[in-house]
Structure formats: structure tokens, C-alpha cells
Amino acid sequence: MYASNLEQLLFDLTGTADVSPGDRSDMARRFDALRRFGRLPQGRQNHASLLNDEQIAAAILGLASDKPNWAGNASLLLGNLAPVGGPEAAAYRASSLLGAVRILLSDERARQSLIRLSLSGAESGINANGFGILKIRAADGVTTTSFVSRLAYHERGSEKTYDHDGQYSPASRALSLNSRFFDRVARDTAHIRQIKPPPISDGSEYDAEEAEQRRREKLGVRPDSRYLMIGVDNQVTWPMHETLVHFDRFSLVLLPKTRDHVQSVSIDLTANKLSMREARTVVNRFLSLITWCDDQFAVAQDGWAGNRVPSPVPRRDLASTTAHHWIFDRRLPADVDTRRALALYREGRNAEQNYLVSFAVLSYYKIIELRHKETIKWLEAAFPLVEKTLRDVIVRAFHEERGNRSVGSHIVGY
User: Fold this and answer.
1) Could you give the CA distance from residue 145 to residue 83 in angstroms, rounded to a whole number?
2) What angle do CA 127, 132, 112 make, to 5 degrees?
3) What is the rounded CA–CA span in Å between residue 146 and residue 224?
4) In this predicted model, what pLDDT tens digit does every residue of 326-371 receive, in sequence order?
């Protein structure tokens, strides 16, 4: 069985699985995800390579995901599930769900005994996803084997008390496969392995994979890359396409603005040998330089780290508060300092919303100065109240950073 032939076969077999007919492009994306996760052979050079039973079984498990792009995750997750009660109590003595599917593909007697194999990626327990239920005809009646996370229900005898019909998630989708499904896959696989006709595709399914590989090479992505992505609200000159730039001794990837994403900077923490804090400093210094060059603003927003490739940062879609009956009847404060404090609070809140943290802190500090001329003493008195609301890790970091300086002096900066 070739990957392209299996892709077409699984599309045909699942065509009546729902009210609406399947989308051929969904199955193509599903197989692309399986290749990216190493569940199927990668590269055009393997276009005409015959799949083994484990690879075919992995592709079948990938059908359980409702979302095609998650097929690789689903295949890995479900394939590693183990039988409740251990292999000795499992149908076909399978030690994993992947192993059970392999047996169904290779053993005709196993297929004849099959009533149904149900697969689902739904939540199956606390911090656990995925389950499989295998029902077969045995000499003593119908036997049910449940496959769940390897962290639960695998002691000998637990299958006798396990509720195979229980469902942890309030709602779940499950794919049900019967003996006719596996008979067809096994028959077509045996035919192709014997006759060895050419694959039904021309290899175009690898075009996207090769394009992504070229993209990664162009952007300097390595196998061990781990990127920090930072959104940037700016009016400086920015490239129209993904661009690898060199700044000092560092490499950064600039991503352009799109309808759904803001302009952003991605920096490889591994290649540049940086911590997240150090990488943020590099990005800020880069933005400082281009701000000076273009005489325009560039505000570093929030982001995240961990992706293996540079990824765009979604545009912020901030919620707003509305009311059916908006009643507002207030007077302008007569006190000048109060009006000034309100203005400073607005400036600080706006700066905070736009990630201008230092300017926000300065604005809030000026509000304190309006009322408390000896600000350091006021901060010393107020800090114990604030300290109780902070996480322990933040409090420890604050005290380690201030060293021997007083709390007020450290906050003020002198």
C-alpha cells in the first residue's frame, strides 16, 4: 500500500460517515499532518515506498481527529493508549491501541471476530485525552476492551470493574470502524504489495512539504529551534514578506502584517543562545534602533515562546463594555490635583494597554507624588499590603533584585 493510495482509500471508506460528504482536501491535509509527525514516510523520494502495517495503522488512527491538521497528534496519542487490565486481559492480547489495529490489518480471524472499534480524541480523564473501545465476538460472548492513558487502570483485574460505557467528557465525537472497513484495507494492501502497481498520485502531495522545507531553510530554522514571538505595533519601515535579518550578532525573523496578524519579530532562543528575558531585550534594542532611523514609533507587544518555527502573532481583538441603558451624570472635579491625577491615570492605563510599561509606571508614580510628597516613605508603608496579593515567585524575585536597598528606594530607582 502506497501513502497516496491509502489516502484515496480512506477517503472512500469514510465518505458515508457523516450527513455531509467528505472533503477531499481534508484528507490531504490529514495525511500532510501525519507526515509532519513522522507517522508516514516524508519526502518525495518515498513517494513509491510501500507502507508497513504500523504506518497504515497510524494513518487509520489519524482519522479520529475531527480537525485534519490534528491528525498527527491524534495518531500519536491514540496509538500509545494501553488496554485496561493489561495485555493479558485485552482482545488479541494487544499491548497498545496501535498494536490492536495492526493485528486487525494482518489477521483475518481477528477481523472476522470484530464487532466495532471506536476511536475518540475526547477528554477521557483529568489531563488526559483519547480512548478506544474494541468489541469482539468471543467463545463466551461479546468481549469489550477499553484503551486509555497508560497512567490509569492497568493493574491486573481492573477490566472487571471498569465502566466501558462510561464517558468522562460531557460530549464527545467517536469514529466507529467495523470489520468491512478493515477487510477492505487489508485486501487492497495485499493486492498492491503483490502486484506493485505505480502509485495513483504524481507526487504533488509533497509540494507543500518541500515548500515549507525551503521556507525553513531561508529563515534559518534548525531542528532544535525554539522561537520567541513578539507582536509589534509600529509605523516604521517593515518588510512585505517573511525576512531573516541580522542585528549585531543575533538573527531575527520579521513577519509582515496580514488581515489577521500584526507585524511581529521571531527570535530563535536556541540558535542565539538567549533566555526569554535576554531575547526581549534584544528585540527592544532592535526596535529602538529602527525607531531612531525612521523617526516613527515601534511598540513591542506581548508574545509567547516554544514554537519550532517562526509563527505570526494574531491581531488583538479587544472586547468592549456596553450597556442597554447607559446613565452618566457626573461633574468635573473642582480640585486641580484631582483632575491632574485623572489625566495621569488615563495616560498610564493607555500606556499599559499598549505595552509601554515603563511609561505606565511613571504615570502612576506621578499620581502618588501629587498626594504624598515623601513618596519613598509612602511606598514603604504601602508595599506590605500589595505584597500579600502577589505570587511568591514574584515576591522572591523582587527581593533578590533589590538586595540591600530599601523597598521604596528600589521601586523609585535610587
Assistant:
1) 7
2) 170
3) 37
4) 776 777 788 888 888 888 888 888 888 778 888 888 888 888 888 8
pLDDT score, position 373:
77
134: which strand partners?
117, 145
Please report, for the chain, how many H helices and E strands are present, in that order: 14, 12
Separation of CA 271 from chain center: 22
Write out pLDDT tens, residues 129-176: 999 999 999 888 889 999 999 887 667 778 888 888 888 899 999 999
Question: Cα separation of 300 and 192, whole Å?
Answer: 56
C-alpha distances in Å from residue 233, one per residue of 11, 337, 378: 44, 33, 36
Query: What's the rounded Cα separation, in Å, for the pair 63 and 53?
Result: 16
Per-residue DSSP letters for 128-146? EEEEEEEEEEETTEEEEEE
Alpha carbon 253 to its chain centroid, in Å, reads 20
| Amino acid of residue 202 | D
Residue type, 286: F
8 Å CB contact between 55 and 37? no
Q: How many CB atoms lie within 10 A of CB 217?
A: 9
Distance from the Cα of residue 241 to its chain's centroid: 24
| Spatial separation of the C-alpha atoms in residues 34 and 76, rounded to whole Å | 9
pTM score > 0.70 for this model? no
- Residue 23: HSE in the Cβ half-sphere, 13 Å Cα cutoff: 7
* Nearest Cα residue to 227 out of 256, 257, 264, 188: 264
Residue 335, φ and ψ in degrees, nearest 5: -75, 130
**∠79-210-12 over CA atoms, to 5°?**
50
